[in-house]
Amino acid sequence: MVSDAVTVRVPAKVNLYLGVGPLREDGYHDLMTVFQALSLYDDVRVSPSTELRITTEGEGAAEVPADGTNLAARAVTEVARRAERAPKVAIEVTKRIPVAGGMAGGSADAAGALVGVVDLWDLGIERTELSEIAAGLGSDVPFALHGGTALGTGRGEQLMPILARGEFHWVLAISRSGLSTPAVYHELDRLRENRSVTDVETERPDALMAALTSGDPRVVAPLLRNDLQPAALSLQPALRRTLRAGIDAGALNGIVSGSGPTCAFLCADETSAVNVAAELSGAGVARAVRTAKGPVPGARVVVE
Ligand SMILES: C[C@@](CO)(OP(=O)(O)O)[C@H](O)COP(=O)(O)OP(=O)(O)OC[C@H]1O[C@@H](n2ccc(N)nc2=O)[C@H](O)[C@@H]1O
Ligand SMILES: Nc1ncnc2c1ncn2[C@@H]1O[C@H](COP(=O)(O)OP(=O)(O)O)[C@@H](O)[C@H]1O
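^ thats the input. predicted complex w/ SUD below
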């Protein structure tokens, strides 16, 4: 049976660890990162159409491009090129992942469109080719396909699954304005101008990986690290207050998520997360506060 429409649910991510090496000649930085997929999802619906169309609704929809530059549209165009077909599909994105929030929302939409169009056209593209297309769209897109908890190397696109036992409970403080990923990397380079960046920055975080296997958030919490955090705080100094407010509210630890400005707080359990979220909402340090758990699977077709 040829399906009329395919809906794909795709998770946001947080970087539990983000070690950033020196600036490379191609403009990227070598990374050693631990991704975790969280239960905050965008939905991407793909259906046949007379031409390539993209519409977005939900959180921050107005800030998302509604043309061929949208990452979801670029994903469909690339699959169509490889399949030698015209990209005649309508893409409808429902956003819950904050735009320009350091939670890889655009990458999630690209991964959702990839999985959606491959299913719609019944292309049977192999996982490795799908990952290769994903990496061509953006460094974070392969992880949005993959989900779970994973070690990311290279520019973040080379993945290795990590065994994480149990569930981790997070509170997300979503900022009033976004941060541009290239601007944050650029700010980090500026802050590092007078010191040499060594291989230590990209050493494998063995202690954190062992802690994830233990499943104990109290062991994981002190090992969270984000090299982009000083750069994000330099561009949005008010985030210091947000981080302090989360700790004061009872979180085990808090970090800026990726390039920010979303702040992610690891909590001892679900009850603690609900309490921290309530207190953070009252503190007025964020536009919105959400709870989420991880790890969750990557981009998946939703049976409607
Ligand atoms: C920082 C991270 C952490 O996971 O994500 P966000 O927090 O923004 O979601 C990623 O490295 C973002 O990945 P993604 O948003 O896919 O970046 P890309 O589109 O590949 O690259 C955008 C720009 O970011 C910078 N960039 C990205 C990845 C990398 N390893 N080194 C870089 O320097 C480059 O300036 C590049 O031109
Ligand atoms: N489908 C999409 N959803 C969100 N942003 C998109 C999308 N396609 C392109 N963009 C652009 O990518 C930029 C980064 O957005 P996003 O992926 O949400 O943030 P981050 O890189 O911080 O995780 C946005 O400012 C937006 O202009």
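The CA atoms of residues 128 and 134 lie 10 Å apart.
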